[in-house]
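Customer escalation, tier 2.

The customer says the design service returned an amino acid string that "doesn't look like it belongs to this structure." They asked us to rerun it and document both sides in this ticket. The original structure tokens are below, unchanged.
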């Protein structure tokens, strides 16, 4: 049964979410369903998921920022089936609230403050150029090549691996681990996917414990070395579980977001050739274009919070212990905030999208993601004379993490 309503709030019938998030039509294009839902109520109950959904920018933003709505991690059950998966979430900054979140973010930010993002910028730009050159050579203006496999999936993994100091020989291990773990975030997962996620988490944890031990013996200039060494003013430092979890979070969140912004964003540009031509003609639009592509087709669609006390959001009361989710894609298409939200505009400057989250959980890797995305799209524009869709792309069947399985393109030098 649905929860009770606040006095004076909408009746339950008027705020029951009218669609299934697993519906293939919604997965393929959720934005029309979001638009219809926003006309009904800003916050609606989803009976199948047993949580509230916030459809508007104001309410989704409130969900992300209200300190009475927290990330409250509960171990997956049975615990013996998910030992490593639970470990990497129990110690994750994404799953914590102050004061534990404040402490952990301070330590991680101190390590990041050593200039890692700017140190990597030239290396990222060189890598992006090399990957695009390889795609151009294989395509030669006539043969479709998969932009995801050839560049989008490889670049962020290589960047995170370089950031962490993972030896080149071990880097092919990282992407399969990440892909398996993030499948646990979907609502329609199978037991097979759960078991694959736990295996990947266990292997990843074991590998990073070994890497951290090596950096303690022989520190370098990589982020793992700095995370091992970092202390705050009180002498506090990361536990080994916190260090391992932070590295896994950087890969999983950074890899998935960058891959899916690249795929979703390039598909949007290919389907809006006027905007692609505009960006090719004026490369100064690249920073605003990246923000617009993140808004237009968000890589993460849903982010849950749990009420630590009764909280009123959008005319309903989220009772203590109940969950409410910000629908980021719906918020990013709210016409109350974005002029003509269904129009792609690479020059859009008034763009308060929430694809990186908001409040204390704003993505700590956002600066690095922006460097990667600007390098990728810049290289694609700089090293081609034309980009065309090779054939209809294949979309991944999941709703929460929105992305493509492949994006065949034809690149002309």
């Amino acid at each position: 049964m649905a929860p009770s309503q606040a006095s004076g709030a909408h009746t339950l019938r008027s705020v029951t979410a009218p669609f299934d998030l697993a519906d293939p039509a919604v997965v393929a294009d959720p934005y029309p369903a979001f638009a219809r839902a926003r006309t009904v109520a800003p916050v609606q109950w989803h009976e199948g998921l047993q949580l509230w959904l916030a459809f508007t920018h104001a309410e989704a933003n409130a969900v992300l920022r209200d300190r009475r709505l927290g990330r409250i991690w509960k171990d997956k059950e049975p615990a013996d089936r998910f030992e490593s998966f639970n470990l990497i979430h129990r110690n994750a900054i994404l799953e914590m609230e102050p004061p534990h979140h404040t402490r952990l973010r301070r330590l991680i930010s101190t390590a990041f403050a050593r200039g890692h993002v700017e140190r990597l910028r030239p290396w990222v730009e060189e890598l992006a150029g090399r990957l695009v050159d390889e795609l151009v050579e294989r395509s030669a203006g006539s043969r479709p090549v998969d932009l995801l496999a050839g560049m989008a999936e490889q670049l962020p993994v290589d960047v995170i691996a370089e950031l962490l100091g993972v030896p080149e020989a071990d880097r092919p291990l990282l992407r399969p681990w990440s892909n398996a773990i993030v499948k646990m975030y979907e609502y329609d997962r199978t037991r097979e996917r759960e078991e694959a996620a736990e295996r990947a988490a266990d292997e990843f944890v074991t590998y990073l414990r070994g890497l951290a031990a090596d950096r303690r013996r022989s520190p370098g200039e990589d982020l793992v070395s700095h995370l091992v060494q970092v202390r705050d003013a009180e002498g506090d430092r990361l536990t080994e579980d916190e260090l391992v979890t932070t590295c896994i979070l950087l890969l999983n969140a950074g890899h998935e977001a960058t891959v899916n912004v690249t795929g979703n964003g390039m598909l949007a540009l290919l389907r809006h050739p006027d905007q692609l031509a505009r960006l090719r003609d004026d490369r100064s639009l690249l920073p605003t274009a990246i923000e617009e592509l993140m808004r237009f087709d968000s890589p993460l669609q849903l982010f849950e919070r749990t009420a630590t006390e009764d909280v009123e959001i959008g005319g309903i009361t989220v009772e203590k212990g109940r969950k409410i989710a910000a629908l980021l894609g719906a918020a990013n298409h709210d016409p109350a905030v974005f002029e003509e939200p269904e129009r792609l505009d690479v020059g859009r400057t008034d763009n308060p999208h929430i694809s990186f989250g908001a409040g204390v959980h704003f993505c700590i890797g956002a600066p690095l993601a922006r460097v990667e995305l600007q390098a990728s799209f810049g290289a694609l524009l700089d090293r081609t004379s034309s980009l065309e869709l090779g054939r209809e792309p294949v979309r991944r069947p999941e709703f929460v993490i929105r992305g493509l399985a492949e994006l065949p393109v034809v690149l002309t030098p």
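Tier 2 assessment: The sequence is consistent with the input. DSSP finds 16 helices and twelve strands in the chain. The two ends are 59 Å apart (CA to CA). Sent an explanation to the customer and offered a walkthrough call.
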